[in-house]
Amino acid sequence: MSTATLEPRVQAPRNYLNADYGWKSWLFTLDHKRIALLYMVSITFFFMIGGFFAVLMRIHLIEPQGALVQPETYNKLFTLHGVIMIFFFLVPSIPTVLGNFLIPLMIGARDLAFPKLNLLSWYIYVIGGLFTLYSAIAGGVDTGWTFYTPYSSTYSNTQVTAVVVGVFINGFSSILTGLNFIVTIHKMRAPGLTWFRMPLFLWALYATSIIMTLGTPVLAISLFLLALEHLFHVGIFSPALGGDPLLFQHLFWFYSHPTVYIMILPAMGVVSEIIACFARKRIFGYKIVGFSSVAIAVLGFLVWGHHMFVTGQSVYAGLIFSFLSFLVAIPSAIKVFNWTSTLYKGSISYEAPMLYALGFIGLFTMGGLTGMFLASLATDVHLNGTYFIVAHFHYIMVGGAVMGYLGGIHFWWPKISGRKYPQGWAALAAAIIFIGFNLTFFPQFILGYLGMPRRYAFYPAEFQVLNVMSSAGASILGVGYLIPLIYFIWSMRYGPVAGANPWGAKGLEWQTSSPPPPENFTQIPVVTEEAYAYAAEEKTSRG
Amino acid sequence: MADAHSAQVQTKYAGLAHQFEDLAQQHDADTLGIWVFLVTEIMFFGGVFAAYAIFRWLYFAAFAGGSHLLDIRLGAINTVVLLGSSLTMALSVRSAQIGNRRALVFFLLLTMILGGAFLGVKAYEYHQKFVEHIVPSLDWAPEGDVLARLAPGGLDHAQLYFFFYFAMTGLHALHMIIGIGLLLWLVLRARKGSFTPDYFAPVEVVGLYWHFVDIVWIFLFPLLYLIGGRY
Amino acid sequence: MQGISFQPEQASSIARSVDHLYFFITAVTLFFTIVIFSTIFYFMLKYRRRSPDERPKAIEGSLPLEVLWTAIPTLIVAAIFVWGSSLYFQNSEPPPGAMEIFVTGKQFMWKAEHPEGQREINELHVPLGRPVKLTMTSEDVIHDFFVPAFRVKKDVLPGRYTSMWFEPTKLGTFHLFCAQYCGAFHAGMIGSVIVVEPDEYERWLMGGVQGETMEAAGERLFRENGCITCHLSDGTGPAPSLLGVYGNTVHLTNGQTLMADDAYIRESILSPAAKVVNGYKPVMPSFQGQLSEEQIVNLVAYIRSLGHSLDNAKGKQQEEGKK
């Protein structure tokens, strides 16, 4: 027994990890699984940088006058925290790590449709990241991740061009990944795998890919025009020459609102997979959940104006955007009810992935419900630009998307690495993250309602208590994120060897070895059963 | 799908990638892929078209004044040149389809030449803007007759018009240059004999891209050159 | 460190109604949070795995349930939408008789100008119980005028006017924050709205440095900048007379018509070629870069007064005609 774990390389069968060695075999790989790991390393790197900036910000905000840095530096911290976390961590995370790894396995293919494009996407991501890191090192950027004009185009003298180029380039990584996924899901499903037999994770990634391909180009053109304005001062966004600063906001939010659905839909897909496995039941209302993903993607393109309710735009425009913003909440609510119903009469176990999935449902529900305050015009007038907004989006993006990502990593880690990790430490980390997260961000709802604006480097003393609470939570949250990093690395060498299907899950990815061979399947499987056919004895095929 | 034997035979063609079962699936995937990419390009150009539409509506007089300074004959020539290049591109795809390698190379080269001609005319037009000092921010000092044409609508808003002129035609020209590069790659592969009637997807894919760039120009020409009646 | 409060003061006429909606949404949020959390906890306990090879029966779904839990949230959000929208509409236009104050935001301070000429920096004195309309613009980047105690905010944009209104219902000093990130000292762009009794407000207006009213300042600027040489009041100059223009329809050379409001006056000063009155040539020079936002706002106030003076003059003529 012990010899088996001490010398895995000698005894493990040929898999994608040991089939080839050397840096060239990694940097020039065309294997979607290796590319997924390249992404995993890079997004973890950016997560730590973005997280480090967050830690500095929360330490700074312990004191009303600011405890750590000058206001100009604080402004650069929150800008780069936002840019890095959104564009270089959240948007890529689940699609490029779990999507890249799992899509061919889940649909029974040997790779994605365009493996070279996949590798190119990673290099584009890295180049975009380098430009962004350069902008941070060469003095920073202080415009906020939203780059509002005319401050960013005319007034700021920070590294605006560098960071805009970095985000622009990174956008192409998103576009090509989305394109790859769409073609793969359309054209490369194994025999018998109809659309309605696909795991819901694939539905979620399909909807995400639609947003990535349709929305990101609009960000690209917005940033392109912003860069031209910043360099040449012509005036399309500057009133002095007849330009319109709000035009930038419309162009920017037309992409950036759908982006939040890029960030949450994959996490919802992960949650569907985990709940089905750990309740040993088919997801309740499978088709409805699948269609809800697509509905969220479509409706998500129609609501961008809710970021601009107080800009002086027409009240009628406000009305329409408010109405649509309420509508887009409904499919998400439907999903939460369906996941909950899946637990009914299930057979539930509480390993780490399930803890993350359940945490997601709780925190996403809270975050999503707080969206109602912001979709409603009268309350948004008071809450816009305050910490309420900050709390709302962190509940969804951190309490939702990051927990979904971590849950997915915990679920598929045995498949990816061939190893198991210690359950006790994993459960502890999940609990620490849950507690630390709520302590960090719940006080911010109250701060926002009380009127503390966001992006403030210093604040009136009456807001201090809540700020200190939030910072205390952030330190706990930080510890919680470090623990998995340690045990995952530990497990690669010392973790117990995992079999092909340690969770007893359904899904084609569990029918091949852990880790999978380079070509995924020795023989392309033929699918004859529905997704999540846990009670397989009772149901075979159904349209 | 295809049985094991013909699958083995097909893999012998330098063309079938390992992730696909057969050439038909690969062709399907390639075609869907380029169409999805073109949709993203529509969204990309769509953003700048939308911004242009808004400003043209706001400052119509200035935009008309700016438009009247463009040479409509050169724009028309370029339109014909580009349409012609789409014809030669379609003929090259046809040549690949019927396996005529010489015709394929010929039509690809002709498409490149026509694309180059377009860029040449464009370069001349850009040069003219510098001569007339109506390049926003870099060389903006209209005088004489040019100034008289632009002043009524407001010089600042006229500068906006030329900003859009350069941004939109510049993006388009960049796409043309990339297209010519892709055509060169096709020529080199075609001469080596890489394409057969069973496998010519790259020619088709580049062809679709080229047609798209052509269509963008079909929109650009009236939007930029043909505002508000002539002279 | 002070204690924690959970709600800002309610110091305006709309604060309470906004808070009522806020509490309703909070109740809905709490309700669904509790329902979901407790259902999940209950299922987690009741259906925990008891043996390793348990195989629960498959349950496909339930259309009636799906309809139910789609319809109920839809109705609830529809109610919130209607409530929030109607409140928003009610609050979008100031009541008649609102007094106007002009506010300019710039990095990193607020400047207010009362019609009587009184100027303030980072403070805004207003009388209790009277609706106040703020007409605002920015001299540089986008800012936002936010008074939490009044539950109002509005972005302040360069190159155009935005407006908002409030009616203070409590005496006191209330926070004024900039709520749209505007650069290095965004956090320092704060001040106070000071609500005083109406007679104290009058006294405050009289006291301090006796300055010009906005209209008088505007008239002076109209002379000093040469506007008067072309905009002759009898209309015989190369420019239209401005008597009676404000608030009335204007016909342009391109056939369009519009209402002459603050924004139109401002644009005509800064970009005169954009909209030229029918029958006139585009010969007016631009004053871009020569006049500050404050000076423009004073000119607007003066031209606004000309709009009324024509009615006064006509009224006088009618009266004299009757005699």
Describe what this molecule looks like in 3D.
The complex is a heterotrimer of chains A (543), B (231) and C (323). Chain A is built from 18 helices and no strands. Chain A is mostly helical. In chain A, α7 (115-137) runs antiparallel to α9, α14 packs antiparallel against α16 (387-417) and α14 runs parallel beside α17. Mean pLDDT of chain A is 93; it is low at 1-5 and 538-543. Chain B contains 8 helices and 2 strands. Chain B has helices spanning 4-11, 23-58, 60-68, 72-97, 101-131, 144-150, 155-191, 201-225; strands spanning 134-135, 139-140. Chain B starts with a helix and ends in a 6-residue tail after the last helix. A two-stranded antiparallel sheet of chain B has the order 1-2. In chain B, α3 crosses α7. Chain B has 231 residues and is an all-alpha fold. Mean pLDDT of chain B is 90; it is low at 1-12. The radius of gyration of chain B is 22 Å and the shape is elongated. Chain C is α+β, with helices and mostly antiparallel strands and 323 residues long. Among the domains of chain C are: 99-206, Cupredoxins -  blue copper proteins (Immunoglobulin-like, Sandwich), CATH 2.60.40.420; 214-322, Cytochrome Bc1 Complex, Chain D, domain 2 (Orthogonal Bundle), CATH 1.10.760.10. In chain C, 38% of the residues lie in helices and 19% in strands. Chain C is built from 7 helices and 12 strands. Chain C has helices at 15-46, 63-90, 198-206, 214-224, 227-230, 262-270, 293-322, and strands at residues 99-106, 109-113, 119-121, 123-127, 132-138, 143-147, 152-156, 162-166, 172-178, 191-196, 249-251, 257-259. A 5-stranded mixed beta sheet of chain C has the order 3-2-1-5-8, with helices on one face. In chain C, strands 4-10-9-6-7 form a 5-stranded mixed beta sheet, covered by helices on one side. In chain C, α1 (15-46) packs antiparallel against α2, α4 (214-224) packs across α7 (293-322) and α6 crosses α7 (293-322). Chain C is elongated. The B-C interface holds B 59-62, 151-154, 156-157 and C 254, 271, 273-274, 282.
